[in-house]
Amino acid sequence: xxxxxxxxxxxxxxxxxxxxxxxxxxxxxxxxxxxxxxxxxxxxxxxxxxxxxxxxxxxxxxxxxxxxxxxxxxxxxxxxxxxxxxxxxxxxxxxxxxxxxxxxxxxxxxxxxxxxxxxxxxxxxxxxxxxxxxxxxxxxxxxxxxxxxxxxxxxxxxxxxxxxxxxxxxxxxxxxxxxxxxxxxxxxxxxxxxxxxxxxxxxxxxxxxxxxxxxxxxxxxxxxxxxxxxxxxxxxxxxxxxxxxxxxxxxxxxxxxxxxxxxxxxxxxxxxxxxxxxxxxxxxxxxxxxxxxxxxxxxxxxxxxxxxxxxxxxxxxxxxxxxxxxxxxxx
Length: 331
Ligand code: AMP
Ligand code: TRP
What we know:
This protein is mostly helical. It has helices at residues 18-31, 43-46, 53-70, 85-94, 99-103, 106-118, 126-141, 154-171, 215-223, 238-249, 253-264, 270-297, 299-327; strands at 5-10, 36-41, 77-79, 146-148, 180-182. Helices cover 57% and strands 6% of the residues.
């Protein structure tokens, strides 16, 4: 039996921090065992906001190295712009998506504010407006059954299903599959510096723990994590809960249970908790960092591998486009 298809995309912006790792990448790696996985570094999406071309190119490859170091298989990984068919499918699908639907996308509104906040004279691109159609093209291109994403992408996935249905209605054939979201078990990881915020790249350096930071820096960041500000007797504070989350995410169940029992009888020292969390995170990132060093030492070979996997995956995209062109009267 054919394996079900999983597709996901990640933007080459910002660093790879623990939130992204536990919220997305770890799951990508895990899914490779049971599914036909296709993972995409979405550089066409990255140019929808003001950007620097040289930096973009660097970020794309850096992200590729990081994903490979985390355990993503090179055969599953491609760079979006190496498959220009995505833009052609995006055009066809954009003619099956209404202006009204796109106007309701909350990410467009958020990102418009971000563009204006950074520079009030910057323009908001049409690409930012049609961004969700490109995402629909990424997903439908490979007839993905499942799309591992965060909750923030729900609206885009719903739109993708609507576009798929409309396409099928126009061409009079059940051609595209309506994809479903796959959520990770790990809920939000919070910033250790400010547990009222989620861990994120855009909030600034101290608000995220980079998987590839020197281990001393990681330990320092965890040691200075905000825990309780006041009385310990009421419910667990967000900062302490986040540290426990991290322990759990690092699969340190035994220590997790021990420390939780200490917390419950009010004997837990937060310094001890932080040390355990730091040990667990370092144990997790150490082999990933070692793999990254090997990858960096073989950049040329790695680049060739990804170019070749992109070419192989492109064959699938070409086959879809041939069918789509003929179904839509465009060949
Ligand atoms: P972003 O960092 O917003 O580009 O998101 C990339 C992926 O990582 C998405 O699937 C997010 O849901 C996930 N992600 C990002 N930050 C966190 C976080 N702090 N906790 C859990 N998941 C996250
Ligand atoms: N929009 C997604 C994000 O901001 C990235 C993305 C682009 C994506 N194409 C995709 C995610 C296809 C899943 C499937 O995180």
